[in-house]
Automatic annotation (TrEMBL), chain A:
Chain ranges passing through the membrane: 82-100, 130-154, 166-184, 196-216, 223-239, 245-263, 283-300, 374-395, 402-419
Keyword Transferase: no
Species in which this protein is naturally found: Sinocyclocheilus anshuiensis
Family: Belongs to the peptidase A22A family.
Keyword Amino-acid biosynthesis in annotation: no
Subcellular location: Endoplasmic reticulum membrane; Golgi apparatus membrane
GO cellular component: endoplasmic reticulum membrane; gamma-secretase complex; Golgi membrane
EC category: hydrolase
Listed name of the protein: Presenilin
Pfam families documented for this protein: Presenilin
TrEMBL record, chain B:
Protein name as catalogued: Gamma-secretase subunit APH-1
An annotated GO cellular component: gamma-secretase complex
Keywords assigned: Membrane, Notch signaling pathway, Transmembrane, Transmembrane helix
BP term (GO), one: protein processing
Signal peptide residue numbers: none
A Pfam family of this chain: Aph-1
Provenance organism: Sinocyclocheilus anshuiensis
Length: 437, 291
């Protein structure tokens, strides 16, 4: 089955758009955020970028504490936020690896490919394979760039309905069609007999609840669970349909692109964000994973439920989306709790784009798929977590939006290739003789 | 090979490490990060030593089996030395981080005793004395009340645990996944006890890495170089004992003896004493009586 264009498109967009911090507006301006709910939404939007994004995430708002205390609180909360991201990333990777190891469908190579990787790799010739994988990568990245530009143009000319419809269509496809496929393959693997009416009921419920949770309101945990499932499904599709070498080159290329797009002043994403800020309105809903539980400190603006609701709605709309395909949308599920206590800090938690989840899982899933070695998978897993940790550390130091992909993917790729080629023979020899190091 | 073997070996090898993780590390996000960073450092050391071994293998005659075996033994010892180097590197990193963290919380100072007591109570719930010992060891630094010393002491044990978990996982996971599949162990004349011995050695190594972590860091802190030398030489000794390996009587009991010795040494080195152990037991009794 070929994946639909819209999905891949929106996906590409999402991943393509990387959020860059506009130089004029600081990424966190806690006091500023506190006072203006609208701005907060904008700011929150900022870090998101397409999956490649960066964790602009750490949105800690400290109301009016002086800088020294802010530093302390930053470090204190930093570890908590890192863990709040470790857990969902780990869960997504676990789901993908478990599926890859048990359901053989996702590792069977078919002749079908995504239309974005049109060149078929010939396993017999190394040079040709390399060339074709590079060409596939160039095609994919250019598709992503084009999609991003189209999105920015659409946004500039205020074609909101089009964008919203597109995003909803993508997430519909992911929640219904891909999960149906997935369930079908799982049933085949475990030889479970299932009738169509029951299946229809299951898929219908799953899909509708997912649409509601993601695009509208829902319990935070449920929304997080759906986002993780969606990322896992998307990653599985990529693992199946991307040709072997192309997948690795694409991973590398996308992290380089992410780096360039977030840190260079001329990216389409940056323009998108700046436009949104100029208009002072939220960007369309995107899929951003948020671990937030927000407590409102007693502020004149936010202590009344109206503004709180408005913030909720805006925030749902706002997160910058970047071409998420099915994932899009965001409705960030941050649930808000209003509290009258002056001392409570706002802890919006951390946000990470779904594209990041997807690419991390693609890397670990491919490590699990190629070869029966668990050490490689484990090494990639640790490498990605450490990369994420370093990224969040850099974020806390520089306090501006950063891409989440480059460091983790670099570590992951280095560890994958080195573990597969160097460590595996060593550990196998040691295990054969039962030597311990 | 059955599910029984799989679960048995998995629990033997990873049970105590997992329990340590759940009771000591999982509560504090910073410790989880230290654990994973420890695992990463171990992985780096393994990577570099595999690289050296691989180059040696490729540069040598692959038909000569004794040479290959010799190179493997060289690889083992080189890897041990490199692990200790990376342990030292991690110690330096943690030291710097702790100095930064120490600036932060003095409100944690008051929380220490509460935590310690909470931990003590938690220990009462868990039936395992080894956990009590280790947990007490981890918190014993807090008896001084100084935040940075406590955090470094805890970090060292957690770092050691990270090393141990990663080392154990790399030794054990492939074997566990093979044990789920069909086959007969030792059908060609090798030992039938392959899986269980592997699991036991993995357990010993995990605990050893934890204890060595504590001792190594204490040694570096107090500049007692003989402690560091002892840790390195004991690690080399354990690796050397494993070279005896199909002769399991020669490798397993001595390794466990060393583990026990290291445990006791680490306990006393991190500030525990018979008195504190006694206090814990009487607190347990008092707890038992009052409840």
């Amino acid at each position: 089955m070929n994946t639909s264009d819209s999905e891949a498109d929106s996906y590409n967009e999402r991943s393509a758009l990387v959020e860059c911090e506009s130089p004029t507006i600081p990424s966190y301006n806690q006091d500023h955020d506190m006072s203006l709910p609208q701005e907060t939404d904008t700011k929150r939007r900022r870090p998101v970028s397409s999956g490649l994004d960066e964790p602009g995430p750490v949105e800690r708002e400290r109301a009016s504490t002086p800088d020294g205390e802010e530093e302390e609180l930053t470090l204190k909360y930093g570890a908590k936020h890192v863990i709040m991201l470790f857990i969902p990333v780990t869960l997504c990777m676990v789901v993908v690896v478990a599926t890859i190891k048990s359901v053989s469908f996702y590792t069977e190579k078919t002749s079908q490919r995504l239309i974005y990787t049109p060149f078929e790799e010939d396993p017999n010739s190394v040079g040709q394979r390399l060339l074709y994988s590079l060409l596939n990568t160039m095609v994919m990245i250019s598709v992503i760039v084009v999609m991003t530009i189209i999105l920015v143009v659409l946004y500039k000319y205020r074609c909101y309905k089009f964008i919203h419809g597109w995003l909803i269509l993508s997430s519909l496809m992911l929640l219904f069609w891909f999960s149906f496929m997935y369930l079908g393959e799982v049933f085949k693997t475990y030889n479970v007999a299932m009738d169509y009416p029951t299946l229809a009921m299951i898929i219908w419920n799953f899909g509708v609840v997912g649409m509601i949770c993601i695009h509208w309101k829902g319990p935070l945990r449920l929304q997080q669970a759906y986002l993780i499932v969606i990322s896992a499904l998307m990653a599985l599709i990529f693992i199946k349909y991307l040709p072997e070498w192309s997948a690795w080159v694409i991973l590398g290329a996308i992290s380089i692109y992410d780096l360039i797009a977030v840190l260079c002043p001329k990216g389409p994403l940056r323009m998108l964000v700046e436009t949104a800020q100029e208009r002072n309105e939220p960007i369309f809903p995107a899929l951003i994973y948020s671990s937030a539980m927000v407590w409102m400190v007693g502020m004149a603006d936010s202590s009344n439920p109206d503004s709180a609701d408005e913030r909720l709605r805006n925030e749902g709309g706002a997160l910058a989306q970047e071409g998420v395909e099915s994932e899009d949308d965001a409705a960030q599920g941050g649930r808000r709790r209003c509290s009258a206590e002056e001392d409570l800090e706002e802890d919006r938690g951390v946000k990470l784009g779904l594209g990041d989840f997807i690419f991390y899982s693609v890397l670990v899933g491919k490590a699990a798929a190629t070869g029966g070695d668990w050490n490689t998978t484990l090494a990639c897993f640790v490498a990605i977590l450490i990369g994420l940790c370093l990224t969040l550390l850099l974020l806390a130091i520089f306090k501006k939006a950063l891409p989440a992909l480059p460091i983790s993917i670099t570590f992951g790729l280095v560890f994958y290739f080195s573990t597969d080629n160097l460590v595996r023979p060593f550990m196998d020899s040691l295990a054969a003789h039962q030597y311990y190091i | 090979m059955t599910l029984a073997v799989f679960f048995g070996c998995a629990f033997i090898a990873f049970g105590p490490a997992f329990a340590l993780f759940v009771f000591t590390v999982a509560k504090d996000p910073l410790r989880v990060i230290i654990l994973i960073a420890g695992a990463f450092f171990w992985l780096l050391s393994l990577l570099l030593s595999s690289l050296v071994w691989f180059i040696a293998i490729k540069a040598s005659n692959s038909q000569d089996l004794t040479l290959q075996r010799g190179l493997l033994i060289f690889g083992v010892f080189f890897s041990v030395l490199l692990q200790e180097v990376f342990r030292f590197a991690y110690y330096r990193l943690l030291r710097k981080a702790t100095e930064g963290l120490a600036a932060i919380s003095d409100d944690d100072g008051s929380a220490i005793s509460v935590r310690q007591m909470a931990y003590g109570k938690l220990c009462l719930c868990s039936a395992e004395n080894s956990l009590v010992l280790l947990g007490f060891m981890l918190h014993s630094g807090s008896l001084d009340g100084r935040f940075d010393q406590m955090s470094l002491c805890v970090s060292c044990a957690v770092a050691g645990l990270g090393f141990g978990i990663m080392s154990g996982a790399f030794s054990m996971i492939n074997i566990l996944s093979d044990s789920l599949g069909p086959g007969t162990v030792g059908i060609f004349g090798d030992s039938q006890y392959y899986f269980i011995i592997t699991a036991l050695m993995t357990l010993a190594l995990t605990l050893l890495h934890t204890f060595w972590g504590v001792l190594f860091f204490e040694g570096c802190e107090k500049s007692r170089w003989w402690v560091i030398a002892a840790v390195v030489s004991l690690h080399l000794l354990v690796a050397g004992l494993s070279l005896l390996n199909p002769l399991y009587e020669g490798s397993l009991p001595p390794v466990y003896g060393i583990t026990l010795l290291m445990g006791v040494w680490a306990f006393f080195s991190s500030g525990g004493s018979l008195h504190s152990l006694n206090a814990l037991c009487t607190r347990r009794k008092a707890e038992g009586e009052s409840s």
